[in-house]
Specification:
The chain is an alpha+beta fold. It has one helix and seven strands. Strand 2 (11-12) and strand 3 form a beta hairpin.
Length: 91
């Protein structure tokens, strides 16, 4: 996800009035600029830099950060169980 100032997303409605998008609205980003940071086979990785001339700020992924420690803990528990089983079998 990215963060953009709401002013960068203001658009005109059918009556010519400027309106800001609300949660759940679909927006179209014009003139998106980015930098190719990698190419793997037929896929390019792009670091987004700006949209409509407004710098892009990446949003923090709190949900992903919260999941990582749990995955690490599960991995550690599985590794310990495997090592204990190996010891019991004499490996």
């Amino acid at each position: 996800m990215i963060n953009l100032p709401i002013e960068a997303l203001v658009d005109e409605n059918g009556e010519g009035e400027e309106v800001a998008p609300e949660v759940g609205d679909t927006v179209v980003l014009n003139e998106v600029a980015g930098e190719v940071t990698g190419v793997d086979g037929g896929v390019a990785t792009i670091d987004l830099k700006s949209a409509g001339g407004v710098p892009i700020e990446y949003a923090a992924h709190e949900e992903a950060a919260e999941e990582t420690p749990m995955e690490d803990a599960e991995g550690d528990a599985l590794m310990e169980a495997a090592m204990a089983a190996d010891e019991e079998e004499g490996y």
